[in-house]
Structure formats: C-alpha cells, structure tokens
Amino acid sequence: MKRNMLAIVILAATLINISLSAVLLFTVVPKAKRTDALIEKIVAAVELETESGIGKDYGTVAPENQEEIVLFKDKVINLKSDNDKSGFAQVSVTLTLNKKHDDYAKLQPLIASKEEKIVAAVRNVLKDYTAVDVSESTDEINAKTLERVVEIFQSTCIIEVTVNAFAVEQ
After folding, report:
1. Predicted TM-score of the model (pTM)
2. Which of 127, 96, 92 has its CA nearest to residue 111?
C-alpha cells in the first residue's frame, strides 16, 4: 500500500510539473519573445543613429587608408554681417576619404561632379559666422560641414572635411 501511495504522489507531482511547464510555455515565452523583439527594435534604432557617421571616432582609420582630395582653393564666400561691417572669407576645402570603405569605389569619382553642392554646403555653414567667429570656430565649422557633406553623399566614406578659411571684415 505504501508503494502505491508513493507512486500516486510521484504521478501527481509529475502531472503538476507538466501542467506548470505548459502554462509557462504558453504564457511566459510569448511575452518574452515580444519583449525581445522590442529590445531588438530599440537596439536597431540606436545602431542606425550611430551608423550615421556623425560623432564617430575616425581616428581608427589608418593613414595609408585615407585619401585627401582638395576640392577647391581660394573660393570667396560671404559671411554674416557684424556691426554694419560685411565680411567674406577666402576658403579652401579638403575632403578625407576612407579607401577601405565599401562606398569608396563609387563615391570617389562622384566628388568632382558634386563640387557645387559641396560649395553650397560650405556657404550654408559659413553664412552663420562673422569674420571673427570663423577663426575661433574652425572645429565647429568642420563638423557642421562634414554633416552636410555626409548628407549629400549618403555615405560615411567621407571621414573628415577640412575648411580653411581666411576671413576679412570690410
């Protein structure tokens, strides 16, 4: 009789275990999958923002994998007026490309044809600066110009834009 009672207790414990496992399988797992999918979407959105290229550390691109292209030299661009004094800047722009980037082969030949758009991007950035501001804000100007150029080409192959501006007030 004791053996039968023990067998019945083991059978009951096994049935309870199976039923609780089924409840776990059909209630908790789908919710966990939905939570996992939500987390994956959030991670994907964050990765998209970091893949934009803006704010990344490009110091990891080796110098032998960089190509500098001088777009134009000594282009005159009007600046923001300051105290009834108009100003202009004599500007030279150099782009630095990552030769190991996937887009390099298709992007490099396009740069010369997009020169006017790049000039317009530089003008749009510099129009907010006075002659005094241009000399003090070179890093900010370079960063804003890089953002605009990356938007033009839709590629992070361009790792740096150097805007050399000699500003003069009249």
Report:
1. 0.60
2. 96
